[in-house]
Amino acid sequence: MPKLMSLLQLVLVILFTPSLCCPEDQKQALLHFKASVLNATAYSALRSPRYSLESWNSSSDCCQWERVNCTSPFGSKTVIALNLDDIVDWNTEEPRVLSFTIFTPLFRIRSLTVLHLSGNRIEGGELLGDSLANLTKLVSLDLGYNSFHGNIPKEIGNMTKLQQLFLDDNNFFGEIPASIQNLNLSITLDFSNNNLTGTIPSSIQKLTKLETLNLENNLLTGDIPSWLFNIKGLKSLYLGGNYLTWNNKAKIMPRCTLFGLSMRSCGLTGEIPDWISTQKTLGILDLSENQLEGTFPLWLAEMNVYYLILSGNNLKGFLPPSLFNSQNLTQLSLSRNNFYGELPSNIGNATEISHLILDGNNFSGKLPESIVNFTYLYFLDLSNNKFFGDTLPDFSSNENLKIIDFSSNEFSAEISTNFPQETVFLSLGKNKFSGNLSRILTYLSHLAYLDIHDNKITGELPGFICQISNLQILNLRNNSLQGSIPDCISNLTKLQILDLSINQLVGDIPTKIGNLARMIETTNDVVVMDYEMHDVILNWKKTQQGLSFNNLDIYSLLDLSMNQLSGEIPASLGSLNALKVLNISHNNLYGRVPASLGDLENLESLDLSYNNISGSIPQSLAKLQQLTILDVSNNKLTGKIPVGSQMDTMNDPNFYANNSGLCGMQIRVPCLEDLSPTIPPKVESKEAWFSWEGVWIGYVVGFFVTVGNLYLIGYLVPTKPPNHRGQQRRQRA
């Protein structure tokens, strides 16, 4: 009997012990998926081992694989969650997408409750095929940051257990389907950053458990429905960046308690709505790009929000000091308003601030010393105000500070050791900074952007500038720099925009300037900021234009104009293949235009005007397919203007003016070699003799006939006495 009991126990153990491995069919489905991804990405796009699927192999339990979660219901393991976000790392120079069909093996795993596939550039015209619709147990579906397009299908309403749905950052269009009211959404509905149209559907109000609704950055229209604020569980509402309008006369008594509210560009007018003051737990408030007026409300200053964005309105007045007593305030953006006065002296009490963005106002006075107390300060933008002072606070201990923009103010200090070593972006243009460039700039070893244009900087352009090895943009335009351009400028291998125009530089253009690597070939490793930056203002194609900072990887510019540079144009400039703008006008350059400039295949604007350049314009310039502006006026050029391709469109006579020796169809001056010469007819020599013989005979005969006729009419009669001749005249009179 004991043996029988032991045997029975063994059988029960075998029957009811949970399987040690995941189901074989699920394992094979996952391996099939991995093989499809590897094939589609040519084995080269998988991320580093931390993100890859290296643990996925046929000899191990799939429940032990990374990005796979299992459970053991009813005595066996099953796969319930796949976290496959960002599994591929695409080369941005060869952007590709993954077909949605690659993921179909995953849809055979019907036990899934969580499926996250965001950030994989998945492309598909139809979101729900039968496969995805069969995942009826899904609780969380994340397809954000992909390339889906088409309408959001109404069949999505059949996934009745779904609590989280992320379709953000795709290319969906059309209206939001009313069938979403069937979902059991209790944390998030995120359709942001698509191309959705129509109005906010009333069916959303039936999602009574909804906590987060994000519809930002679409093409939605119509009024913002007041019933949104009656969804009691709603905690975050993001509606900005659409064509929605707010009924400013609506009386709102919210039943919800919001943490986040974005109504950016929603047509708000008048003062900041009072009903917002009822949201005591508010942490994020974005009311930017509206037409709000009035002063900064005291009740808002005392709400202890984390992110406060009021930029692009018509707000005015002083900032209340109580705003900076908050220990929660992390980001304060008040740009492009009409605030004025000095910054409160207690501004540094808000020690948690990381982004302080006050540009485009009328703030004035000196910067308060406490402004350096921000422990986590990362982004400081005080540009386009009226701040002044001959000294600046010492920011050198703000080790997190990377972006500093003090441009377009009235600072008059010398540029000294005020900035932290980690600074990446330093913009000081359009002030009254004076003195020499300081060697302490070399201390800023991470500096990628240095802009000191339109100041009063004097002295020589120092060689130590070449030691700032990470520089990508150097703008020293319109100062009083002297001396020559140092040869070591070629050491700045990451430099792609160099503007030294409107100074007093002398000497030759260094031959080594043709070794600037980033101007030879652009790369995609430019500094990317996590906040929208001001445009970079440069002399682009003969006008000052703003170039988007976040697209600077496609720009390359060299501007040495309006100096006193001399010597010949170095042929090495023809090596800078990535250049889009080359301007060396208004100098004392002489010699010929190098034919190598025809190798600048990306060049859009070439300005050589106001120099002493001689010789002809090289025909090689006709190879420049991107060229839209060519100015060689006010030189000593001669010969025929090249023709062919873009050169045929360079037909503004002003761009060739004051070159007395130029000709060509562009300026409507014919060249001698283009004129058809007059050639006398060819005749045989015998015929020629008879022809000339006839001429002489005709001449002799004609002579005697003429003499005879003249004799007969009296022209050759001997002259009569003067008195008789005079008497004849009197009688005729």
In short:
With 733 residues, the chain is an alpha/beta fold. It is built from seven helices and 47 strands.
Percent of residues in beta strands? 15-25%
Shape: globular
User: Distance N terminus to C terminus?
Assistant: 176 Å
Mean pLDDT: 84
Compute the number of helices. 7
Q: Low-confidence segments, ≥5 residues, pLDDT <50?
A: 1-18, 681-733
CATH architecture of one domain: Alpha-Beta Horseshoe
CATH top-level class of one domain: Alpha Beta
C-alpha Rg, in Å?
A: 40 Å
Number of strands: 47
Q: What is the CATH fold-level name of one domain?
A: Leucine-rich repeat, LRR (right-handed beta-alpha superhelix)
User: Would you tell me the structural class of the helices and strands?
Assistant: alpha/beta
Helix content: 10-25%
Work out the oligomeric state of the chains in this entry: single chain
